[in-house]
């Protein structure tokens, strides 16, 4: 998962391939709560692993539910009529699918509970649910602002004779919470009546479907009256599988409609038209805009059809979350699109109506924001933009699709880790199926002499940007190690044999480790002997040529930071930023001396300085790719700088080259 302050997505050209999506958030947290409240053990397969499910699981553990992690999910031992552990202080993050249903269940069961979350959760209204629960005799107090969490829950005096009214026009989660909690106390028929229009009806369908799986068949009269039968009891279904998330699928359905103009398209595994999730109807909206869609029981395939996409005027009440993706698709339409009946966006993770309007305008779109609608006219000219994500996972994900803009403008997604709420690996999944030309993938080169600190600087810059990292020196060390293990002397007589081996070295850099196939060679290539051997093989022209293509293959989305001695002059001459890092021989010798002392290796600064100066001379006099700064490289002398100061300087240089630095 990208945990960087921002993620720059370069211009993207197309997409094809297959994706496997995480489990549905809406289904996951409903299933977890039902499994915790029912009788028996429930094995939940394909559970979404995200911030929202983690806070729910932790809350259930605190309440006394048995939770055991398994290879493909989790096994829960339900309370089965036992009272939840009390007192308990439950922190629920920004998970509405945990806060609302848990509040209702604990309120009807009674105890001493405090439910809180992040600051944004304390801005999301819960008053209509609390009002409904208070009318049936539950004791709930606000610990802060009236109508909003945090809440304190006490012992109820239930009165279940009269119908329980609940508003349906703010959030369907209020009705869901009541429907999931009331079977716990259904000694008689319990009726819930919806006041006003019920929004997000498909989410209520999910709730009713899952209640039936757990043994409770709720009767309903249209969408206004729901009856929990007397004697209802939650019972474990044993095993239950969580569907892939239809809301998350919307980004890849849109991706196919926008960018999959080849024969393969985008295939989405684990989801089909018979999904119980309402957001599966996003397929209809995508088709209305021109997407070519084929769907089976457990697979969806999407390709670009009509282009540009067709503008739409759509009531989005049935797909409130996925409709955000339509707003970005509208940027690629042939006219003005109108998304209606989306007032519920204002009480989600952020005020999504205001947020979407603001970010769409940054890209150049003309946007009219109403109380419950957006009118979106595509940009006359696209602009590069920093997308502020408001700690909202869906804003981060849907705006990533703006990188396909015809102007070839990059997009900066701020706080990309917010996708962890529902789809922690979203960007990795996206990059696995999109494509672009190599010049569009940004590269930062850090070249310089031995012991100048190239690797430390480059790896930290890569970490800060969320880019891949290439230690080209390690490739030469690995080549020397592999040749030595194969019995090849590091000389001209074996040059071509070593070169053939170098062409196919299975090298990976993973979390600071260097892997050769399945062998961790991190320590083996960091010895002084390995460094000397690397210098020997780097002097062999055929080996250097063989390693060029291998090094260039590390240029992958979203970008690369490469360090070495000829990254900017030979391997990536088109790199967007080239840094030549240096320090005095005396300073480098002193640093190396400290490193070796820590390892218990005896040496002297004088000897180290002589060795470094000799290496500098050899490297600068090579016939192939001699060590020298690229003509357009920026010189950075770090003799008197800390690592953090050097990193900060490179990041400043990098940001100065970005088109959205002042947006």
Automatic annotation (TrEMBL):
It catalyses: 3-phosphoshikimate + phosphoenolpyruvate = 5-O-(1-carboxyvinyl)-3-phosphoshikimate + phosphate; dCMP + ATP = dCDP + ADP; CMP + ATP = CDP + ADP. InterPro entries: Cytidylate_kin, Cytidylate_kinase_dom, Enolpyruvate_Tfrase_dom, Enolpyruvate_Tfrase_sf, EPSP_synthase, EPSP_synthase_CS, P-loop_NTPase, RNA3'P_cycl/enolpyr_Trfase_a/b. ATP binds at residues 448-456. It is found in: Cytoplasm. Keywords: Amino-acid biosynthesis, Aromatic amino acid biosynthesis, ATP-binding, Cytoplasm, Kinase, Nucleotide-binding, Transferase. Phosphoenolpyruvate binds at residues 25, 96, 124, 173, 352, 394, 421. The active site is at residue 321. 3-phosphoshikimate binds at residues 25-26, 30, 171-173, 200, 321, 348. SUPFAM superfamilies: EPT/RTPC-like, P-loop containing nucleoside triphosphate hydrolases. One of its GO terms (molecular function) is 3-phosphoshikimate 1-carboxyvinyltransferase activity. GO terms for cellular component: cytoplasm. Pathway: Metabolic intermediate biosynthesis; chorismate biosynthesis; chorismate from D-erythrose 4-phosphate and phosphoenolpyruvate: step 6/7. GO terms for biological process: amino acid biosynthetic process; aromatic amino acid family biosynthetic process; chorismate biosynthetic process; pyrimidine nucleotide metabolic process. It comes from the Bacteria. Residues 444-652 form the Cytidylate kinase domain. Coiled coil: none annotated. Residues 16-430 form the Enolpyruvate transferase domain. NCBIfam families: aroA, cmk, PRK11860.1. Belongs to the cytidylate kinase family. Type 1 subfamily. Belongs to the EPSP synthase family. Catalyzes the transfer of the enolpyruvyl moiety of phosphoenolpyruvate (PEP) to the 5-hydroxyl of shikimate-3-phosphate (S3P) to produce enolpyruvyl shikimate-3-phosphate and inorganic phosphate. This is Multifunctional fusion protein. It comes from Ramlibacter tataouinensis (strain ATCC BAA-407 / DSM 14655 / LMG 21543 / TTB310).
